[in-house]
Please model this.
Amino acid sequence: MLASSVQRSKSNPYPSKARSAFVRRMVLAVLVLAALALLTISFRSPTAGALHDVQGGLSSALHPFQIAATRVARPFQDAYDYLDGLASAKSENARLRRENRELRAEALANEALAAKASDLEKLVNYEQGRTYPKGYRAVNAAVISFPAGPFTQQIAIDAGSSQGIRVNTPVVTGDGLVGRVTNVFSGSSVVTLLSDANSYVSARDLQTGVRGLIRHGPGNTLILDQVPKQVVVRKGDELVTDGTRDPRYPDLYPYGIPIGRVSSVGIEDTASFLQVQVEPFANLGSLDSVAALVATRQK
Model:
């Protein structure tokens, strides 16, 4: 009997789990029904009654816990608000910086366009003015390169032989003489400025009629050279190109192109001529738009 095997009935491997699941479902169902019942009673009951008294009592009993929870959560809420505000401020600051850069770039571009428009307006006024030389047409051009150093007084413009420009073509702005073309290509030209050491221009004083030679002076200045000591030249006198005196020896520049104004006059005992300093009308250090004066008749 003891050695004989006894076959036992097969037991359910998860009885407790099944009961637990059933109990949870029942509890959930009861809670849902209770909640629905309370909501129904609350909406249908008058504003005063036992249920409202119970609700008021529970609210009063839980009020200290609500205050405590609010006080405990307040530092965390403040920290979150601070970090969120800091992140928002950084984002807004970055946006404002970006907009500021864009506005600054736009303002600079507008200023550059305004400066070019002003130069073009001066050129148009000069071309239509009474001092514009006869027998010449203006080829307006933009400056595309500037002097590479203090000893290179040359610029490049975006007009060349295809527009009729040749070597020795005078170049002006709306203010006055700039220089002459010394090298020309199909679509561009090199202009040697008045301030170059190899530049010489015959000039005349409009107020006194005195003639001289505009050339490079000390410290990249301009001087009116070859002016005898016995003649009169005054500070403020205006100088223009002298033009051709003898048809057999035509000058490179037509008569009457404004050059500059006398800034000072000095006399040295050891010098043979007056020391006449000249301030050019054209701003040779800041050129944007110029005009090449092309002769309408080939010389």
